[in-house]
Amino acid sequence: MNSSKEEAIKFIPIFFAKTQLWSFVYYITVTTFAIFTNSLLIFAMLKDPLKCFPNATSIFVFHLAFSDLLISVMFMEESLMWLTNYGGIDGLPWPFRILNYLVFEVFFFSNMPSIFSLALERCLGIVFPLWHKVNITANVCYTWIAMIWVLGGVVVTIRFTFLIYFLQEQMNVYIAKCTWGILITATLICYLVGVITVRKRRLALKKNTAISKVAQELAQVRLRNENRFLFTMFIIFVGFFVGVIPSMTTFWLLDVVWMTNNAVALMCNITDMILLLNFAANTCIYLWRLPKYRKTFQVLYCNKSRGDARHVVARHAQNQEAVEVV
């Protein structure tokens, strides 16, 4: 490998910390749990025993679970590579090392746009419910998801072109920061617009005397469910944000503060641990916060009667229709 490629390789961020025995056990445990829980969620949404997932929100939740699964598989691959003669990603020949980083970057990039897409879809569903129901079809969602992966490939290709061929480390970092900054800001805006709209409608319902009390109660339940889902997405967003920030802080510290190799390894291990927990926890958050997902798991994996669970889902659907009528 020539000197310019050697120099470019040095600039590639440390996505995977140098593995040690204790961190290897942790990585394998958490990634196994993440792969297991996300696989259960994906299978449950594909089977859909209660027929409650044929909607736009479920498509984006499915995609987020798929993204979490892919990233967890990549982390497990790095952990298992520690057992080989290469000792990790850094020991691979440079073409395979670059390819590995590129694939991981694309997988990792798909995660934040997936969270943003969920926030945007719910924001549109709350602010423009009738327009959303007519126009946001399954084909629109699939096209949007395809655009996420295309955009990820384009952004990562541009970043690594600057990094490897022009040795522009700062430009690589600048593009990454701008992309993440835009996505994080847009997600927060969608969340705030959704929450404010729900609050305004709940206040308006209390003052509306033109509809029956039953319709008002159904609409209030529907808005409360919307608020619950928005808060669930906010928890997932905060978890991702909290997981990413320590990694970014570590990369910044490595540039401005001299540290021993042991200190660098420990910091990278800790940031990886925080980040991995996010990918493993999302399914648990759905089951904790959202009855529809909890009932589906109970029917599919715990042999619970479908009758009671379907009653809950049907009542939820009636609440949705009530709000659209109001």
Describe the 3D structure.
The protein has twelve helices and no strands. Helix 9 crosses helix 12 and helix 10 crosses helix 11. The chain starts with a helix and ends with a helix.
Write a short abstract of this structure:
This protein has 326 residues and is mainly α. It contains twelve helices and no strands.
Which sheet architecture does the biggest sheet show?
Answer: none
CATH fold group: Rhopdopsin 7-helix transmembrane proteins
Please give the number of β-strands: 0
Enumerate how many helices there are, as a single number: 12
Going by CATH, the architecture would be Up-down Bundle
Name of the CATH first level:
Mainly Alpha
**How much helix is in the residues?**
over 70%
Order of secondary-structure elements: HHHHHHHHHHHH
The end-to-end distance, rounded to whole angstroms, is: 67 Å
What is the domain total for the residues? 1
Considering the protein shown, what is the CATH homologous superfamily?
A: Rhodopsin 7-helix transmembrane proteins
- Give the strand content: under 5%
Mean pLDDT: 78
Shape: globular
Which residue ranges are poorly predicted, with pLDDT under 50 across at least 5 consecutive positions?
Answer: 1-16, 256-260, 318-326
- Structural class designation: mainly alpha
